[in-house]
């Protein structure tokens, strides 16, 4: 069999066994319990929560992110092994949502880590979340969920944006060098 | 004893709401006295920026389960060089509120050893809850100017 075929089979199998990092921020954390438990029961899709990022496949960003939380999210994301997928929940991860003018929340998640799928809504209902999971499985099967490849390829751009956000400055690199000189 | 009997200068705003306006030096005494007289719940410490007066107002909120009464002790500190004595020896939880107000308004609490980064890590600008901090301008100049990741 060719290498491509193996990859196809591997994707076909792995889409039915997705483990998510139990990392909840913002109000989406409230929508997850019904999705995970018997009411909507995401386990029937082969998804379950995993205690450690190193053994997980999906990272759900369930709402707004303060810069301090973003540091933790980046740490968690980098600990996860390839292939890994990110779903952004609600308008907060798309454009800041109701926190569009907050001094401490990031506005566009895809500037800092690659996002495979966004769910619209504030907050998305469990039905929308289930729909997104099915869509993500479909994307994995077709080989369209390639956020983790993007993160490798444009690593320096993502890192530059992260450093800017963590320092609350656009010209962060210059400023830090000046501070070191002092 | 109820707050109005203890402090004659206390104003009654409405049933169950007492406001005491005082000075920096007397807050500690008043808090201690209230604590000994049944007002044993320190609710929170809040801060207001009165930019036109050039002052910050610090409000210590106390609650009594016995009298079901909310007492607000209000003081004014100078806005240019805001300092206040830490009162963490009376109620240990004041320490956390002081850390927050130090970060959000820049009030310096003398005697609090933990006035470092709290929620904002490495914030280089003026404290964000001050009235002269233009949040919208900061957001537009900073978050919206962070470049998108360009794919080739």
Structure description:
The complex is a heterodimer of chains A (182) and B (152). Chain A has 182 residues and is mostly helical. Helices cover 48% and strands 11% of the residues of chain A. Chain A has helices at 3-14, 28-36, 67-79, 90-95, 126-142, 147-153, 155-167, 172-181, and strands at 18-21, 47-50, 58-61, 85-89, 117-119. In chain A, helix 2 (28-36) crosses helix 5 (126-142). The termini of chain A are far apart. Chain B is α/β, with parallel strands linked by helices and 152 residues long. In chain B, a hairpin with a 4-residue loop joins strand 3 (41-50) and strand 4. The mean pLDDT of chain B is 91. Chain B has four helices and seven strands, in the order αββαββββαβα. The A-B interface holds A 66-68, 71, 96, 100-104, 106-108, 110-111, 114, 150, 154, 157-158, 160-161, 164-170, 175 and B 119-125, 128, 133, 135-136, 138-139, 141-151.
Q: List the uncertain runs of chain B.
A: none
CATH architecture of chain B: 2-Layer Sandwich
- What is the CATH first-level class name of chain A? Alpha Beta
CATH superfamily of chain B: NADH:ubiquinone oxidoreductase Nqo5 subunit
Estimate nothing, just give the exact number of structural domains of chain B. 1
Helicity of chain A, as a percent range: 40-55%
The string of secondary-structure elements of chain B, in order, is HEEHEEEEHEH
Q: Terminal Cα separation of chain A, in Å?
A: 61 Å
Shape descriptor of chain B reads: elongated
- Cα radius of gyration of chain B in angstroms: 19 Å
| Euclidean distance between termini CA atoms of chain B | 74 Å
Biggest sheet details of chain A: 3 strands, parallel
CATH fold node name of chain B: Beta Polymerase, domain 2
Structural class of chain A: mainly alpha
Return the structural class of chain B: alpha/beta
């Amino acid at each position: 069999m060719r290498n491509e075929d193996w990859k196809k089979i591997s994707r076909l199998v792995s889409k039915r066994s997705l483990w998510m990092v139990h990392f909840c921020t913002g109000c989406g954390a409230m929508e997850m319990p019904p999705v995970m438990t018997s009411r909507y029961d995401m386990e029937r899709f082969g998804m379950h929560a995993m205690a450690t990022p190193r053994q997980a496949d999906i990272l759900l960003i369930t709402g707004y992110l303060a810069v301090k939380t973003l540091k933790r999210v980046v740490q968690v994301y980098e600990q996860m092994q390839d292939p890994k997928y990110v779903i952004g929940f609600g308008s907060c991860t798309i454009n800041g949502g109701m926190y569009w003018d907050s001094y401490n929340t990031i506005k566009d998640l895809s500037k800092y880590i690659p996002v495979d799928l966004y769910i619209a809504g504030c907050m998305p209902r469990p039905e929308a979340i289930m729909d997104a999971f099915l869509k993500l499985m479909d994307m994995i099967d077709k080989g369209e969920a390639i956020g983790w490849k993007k993160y490798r390829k444009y690593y320096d751009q993502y890192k530059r944006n992260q450093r800017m956000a963590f320092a609350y400055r656009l010209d962060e690199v210059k400023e830090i060098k000046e501070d070191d000189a002092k | 004893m109820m707050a109005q009997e203890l402090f004659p200068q206390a104003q009654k705003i409405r049933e169950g709401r007492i406001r005491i306006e005082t000075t920096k030096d007397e807050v500690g005494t008043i808090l201690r006295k209230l604590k000994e007289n049944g007002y044993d719940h320190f609710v929170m410490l809040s801060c207001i920026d009165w930019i036109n007066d050039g002052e910050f107002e610090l409000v210590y909120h106390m609650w009594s389960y016995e009298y079901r009464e909310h007492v607000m002790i209000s003081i004014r500190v100078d806005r240019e060089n805001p300092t206040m004595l830490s009162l963490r020896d009376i109620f240990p939880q004041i320490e956390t509120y002081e850390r927050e107000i130090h970060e959000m308004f820049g009030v310096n609490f003398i005697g609090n050893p933990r006035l470092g980064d709290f929620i904002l890590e490495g914030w280089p600008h003026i404290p964000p809850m001050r009235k002269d901090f233009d949040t919208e301008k900061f957001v537009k100049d900073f978050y919206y100017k962070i470049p998108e990741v360009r794919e080739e």
